[in-house]
Amino acid sequence: MDFSLSEEQLMIRDAARDFARTELLPGVIERDNLQKFPTEQVKKMGELGFLGMMVDPKYGGGGMDTQSYVLVMEELSKIDASCSVIVSVNNSLVCYGLEKYGSEEQKQKYLTKLTTGEKLGAFCLSEPEAGSDATSQKTTAIEDGDHYILNGTKNWITNGGSADYYLVIAQTHKEKKHKGINAFIVEKGWEGFEIGPKEDKLGIRGSDTHSLIFNDVRVPKENRIGEDGFGFSFAMKTLAGGRIGIAAQALGIAAGAYDMAREYSKVRKAFGTEICNHQAIAFKLADMHTSIEAARNLVYKAAWDKDQGNDYDMSGAMAKLYASQVAMDVSIEAVQVHGGNGYVKEYHVERLMRDAKITQIYEGTSEIQKIVISRGLLRD
Prior knowledge:
Elements: H1 7-24, H2 28-34, H3 39-47, H4 66-79, H5 81-101, H6 104-114, E1 121-124, E2 140-144, E3 147-158, E4 165-171, E5 181-187, E6 193-198, E7 209-220, H7 231-267, E8 269-270, E9 273-274, H8 279-308, H9 313-338, H10 349-358, H11 366-378
């Protein structure tokens, strides 16, 4: 086993770390308070190549490995998980899905703009009655000549109001159930496509989350991704990689909270000495660090599996399940280490605690990850 990072990976990690500290940290509390989308920061992330990291350079991407992507996600998430989820969706779900399964025409028309940050993408699977049960799609796409007529509603869509291109999952052949589902590329501004109000969320408040409404939206047949009926498989295969990105986000949230708690414990005094000298606090830090290292190894292993061409369904699910729990546990303890100050926004840890919760929910809840893992264990 080789746990070392290459010189290139270290440079990428350091670039992301520097960007997070110089560009994301200033204003992160204000963006959280105001639910302000980080428009300028996203533009700069596109210029740095963070929005199309793993895409082939011929489509404008960075051609990097999954490990490099995970390193960037971890560093950005230490400071601003709202920005990192934008990176995750654009990379793991939209760019990956289009490069892996899209036609050459779709790649030239859409992917080349998404990788550079010129355009932003969104992945539209969840519905009011189809969250964890993704087979229960009520959004329909009915064939009509050279088009599909799209009708329905999508919920909790990251980048919902800011995206330019949307990958929409919809039911075409209801009698075929999940084998009758298709995936489509929809552009903002098409007639009948409406964006609902922004959700007022507990965490990742800088990320814009919306419902999307489709009323007789005409989608050209050339915007269908893959063969007829491939939509459900497309969604599941794409989400498997997306879990690695969210696992890295959870890891970053935990690591960021731990770093703040450790530094605070070195300067805060109680009973005549810095609180890090009290066993109650020192042992908290020891437990936090140990769990983060365990999560980091799971996340890196999942990234390695993907880069090696191995099946990463289970390793990705295990990484997301464990890292998201660690994000919750460590961020809660970080607030505790800070005491009363931990409950105050200016110390950042309360925001990380709020941000951590969503990592146990989106791109497959923790309960869904256990289903994936248990099925993998019992397959043979």
